[in-house]
Amino acid sequence: MAKSAGSCYLSTCLIAAAAVALALAFNAPLCPAQEMAQGQGPAPRLAADPHADSHIAEAIRQVSADRIRQTIEKLVSFQNRSTISAQDEASIKAGKGIGAAREWIKAEFERYSKECGGCLEVKTDTFTEPPADRIPKPTDITNVYAVLRGTDAQQANRIMLVTGHYDSRNSDPLNGTDPAPGANDDGSGTAVSLECARALSKAASHLKFPATIIFLTVAGEEQGLNGSKHFAQMAKQQGWKIEAVLNNDIVGGDRSAQQDASVVRVFSEGLPAAAPEAEIRRIRMLGGESDSASRELARYIADVGRSYTAGVKPLLIFRLDRFLRGGDHYSFNQQGFAAVRFTEFREDFNHQHQTPRIENGIEYGDLPKFVDFDYVAHVARLNAATLASLASAPAAPATVKMQTKNLENDTTLTWEASTGAAAYEVVWRSTNAADWEYVQTVSSGTRATLKVSKDNVIFGVRAVDAAGHRSLPVVPEPER
Ligand SMILES: [Zn+2]
């Protein structure tokens, strides 16, 4: 499957390259994004060209479907991981309820850390949620996470984060005792976070990540996004520089007949939830409705998907989430962080939020037998490659400006130098294109003039290090 997707991609790429070459050779009219920076610097390249770091490719091969299966089966063994289920000492000892799940996840992170010579800092974030619709009495909620600290003192404050929710529910959101296996929702996302921690901490012995990676598992999702809300607020208050949040929720690849196991949906917000009114006005004036930081992150994941063989391709959905649903990425969006949601292509609602039972010949329940563990491993590889790429890359350029002082058809961009950058790349696309189409390298300096009209395309600037790791792109602000 991965092989055919790869060759399909290659032929598309070759056709596109041939089209550009032909258009240039015959001096045919070009669409706006195909205008070339004639006579200045190297010719633009196709932005869809893949580029991989062999060390990252090797690191993601460590992700194991069998480990993921073990993790999900272990999580299911706690019977009910509802946020309002048991977390007293006796229940933890008996291996029942959310308290036991929490302790097991913590021990698992600690085990990975031991295997990498203490490279992970294992932490908890505990708070008491006051009574609400789905919280009958004050309830302690604990987020469990592991920190792989960046190796570069100047960049260790940059954070990339992967998360899944380890709480589960059955048909009744207030039932904390009857089985609520939550194998897919969200044992799968919890397993992605854990397996990324295991694979990347293992790789960290020979692969240096200048920036920090956090592997998070939250609770309270099913009761009202409580855990992620608390964590995102804490991060905002403490000034954490979280550059990317990858939320994995329902990535089990339910084995229904109509499932498409070759893709995983990546949801991203358009207008930023945290943008104040003045910012929304600015976005409206500039035509920036599809360039939130979350959307740029989604495009980055598409790029990672083309560059590495994860076994699954990201399918970008330009929408915050599915109808009638929500997720932990939104808690981060609300605090102004770039955050996206990964979810399998087609959900089977008989296998989510259902008390296990057979009714009219239909089997209900979120059980391990409906989960495709190979698929979860593919999604984990895509996540791990994204985290490793971002944490290896220089910081995105700051203060990116586009000169709009005079009426002119050329475009001049300027930016501040980024720590760790060896060069920069200007990317652009037609205003009606979903993803970046062209890229031009700027090998020295922090300024570029392109023979492409700013009126017709959307530009971004990204930093590149000596090994070719690319930062997230930054869309320029007009400067008059
Ligand atoms: Zn969920």
Walkthrough of the structure:
- This protein is 33% helix and 22% strand.
- It is α/β, with parallel strands linked by helices and 480 residues long.
- The strands form 4 sheets. An 8-stranded mixed sheet has the order 2-3-5-4-6-9-7-8, with helices on both faces.
- The protein is globular, with a radius of gyration of 23 Å.
- It binds zinc ion.
- Zinc ion binds next to helix 6.
- Residues 165, 185-186, 221, 249-250 line the site of zinc ion (ZN).
How do you describe this structure in short?
The protein is α/β, with parallel strands linked by helices.
Properties at a glance:
480 residues, alpha/beta, single chain, 12 helices, eight-stranded mixed β-sheet, disordered N terminus
How helix-rich are the residues, as a percent range? 25-40%
Query: Total number of helical segments?
Result: 12
User: What average pLDDT do the residues reach?
Assistant: 92
Radius of gyration: 23 Å
Sheet with most strands: 8 strands, mixed
The structure class reads alpha/beta
Number of strands: 18
Low-confidence segments, given as residue ranges, are 1-30
Distance between the termini: 50 Å
How does the overall form come out from the CA principal axes?
A: globular
Associated small molecules:
zinc ion
Strand order of the largest sheet: 2-3-5-4-6-9-7-8
